[in-house]
Amino acid sequence: MAATYIDQLLNDLHSALKSEEKYSPHIGYLQFSNKKSGDLTIDLYLKVVDRLRCLNRFYKLSPETFFQAVNIMGRFLSIVKARAHHIMCVSTCCFYMAVKTIEEPKNHMCAKHLLRIGQCRASLSDLSRMERIILEKLQFDIQGTNSNTFLQIYHSFCKSNNAMNIQSNTWQEFLDRITRKLEASMCHFAFVHYKSSVKALALLTYELADFARVHCNPAEREWTRCLLALQLHTRMSDSELLQCKSLMRDFLDIYASPECKRPHSKLSWTVSMRTAKQIRMSCMTACHLPPIPENEPPLLRTSDGESITAESSSDDNSECTSPVTDDVFIDDSTSPTEDRSAFLFPWNVRTICQSL
Predict the structure, then answer these.
(1) Which of 183, 186, 45, 69 is nearest to 134 (CA)?
(2) Does residue 325 carry a pLDDT above 50?
(3) How far is Cα 114 from Cα 95, in angstroms, rounded to an integer?
(4) Can you state the angle between helices 168-185 and 238-256, rounded to 10 degrees?
(5) Which of 116, 88, 194, 211 is nearest to 155 (CA)?
(6) pTM of this structure
(7) Rounded (10°) angle between helices 196-215 and 147-161
């Protein structure tokens, strides 16, 4: 059974290697871009990738969604040289396409919410038009091989060989840790020049040595045989692997240092002065509500300030105004007839107040 599973992993590895060149982005031209002419620069590209990483953490999505979004954006930029003022719309669209491709339908966010939270200053029609352009340029082939694909195969190969006799949950913790580091390496432009297979194996080679030093006998070197077998199957040269490994070591030293502030991109929202004042006041004051008896109808407050029950309110056909806190998150520029689902928060404050 173990031999069959390893053969399946090797078949998946060979299939990924065959399609690696097809799905590899070629964006080395960004280092020659001119910022004054409005071209996309390296700094802006890395800022956008870091923002995608922050959005992926904000929505608590799988790491594969982030890698797929970056891969789609990189392949599109390899074909089309987008301008700097278009990159936010392109990145948001690539992220939304990756979510619809990788995640389950229950994890799909509303496109309007994504545009508001991402603050790319684009409309739904712009997002739809950009999605159509990206699909046409990529020939509707958006789910391709990326760095995380190889890292998953490498990790499963080492785990299935059971070279270090380590429990399964420990292997999973190790995979989560190196996946986060691989995510951080996507925000480093120097790794763009390396293939996805080389970058994933360089990271695994560097991290697996420390992992084996902690969890197994230092005299046992079985894990090195797994790495050598992977290098032979990928037909990777020693010079290429050592060069990427050295660059990865330098990057991870910076990543582990206290000075590292990644991800340095922060999600921020713009609100009106009236909304900001009400938010600050609600944060400083505590609202103490009396308990509501279960057998008595709740009290409602009319526009005249009188407290009446729900039964008398329905009999007299009197209209009740909404609580003061109902428009806390409403901007001055928002019309009263706008759908509440367009706001940043998916819940309604009126429903929360009535439930209390």
Answers:
(1) 69
(2) no
(3) 10
(4) 90
(5) 211
(6) 0.71
(7) 40
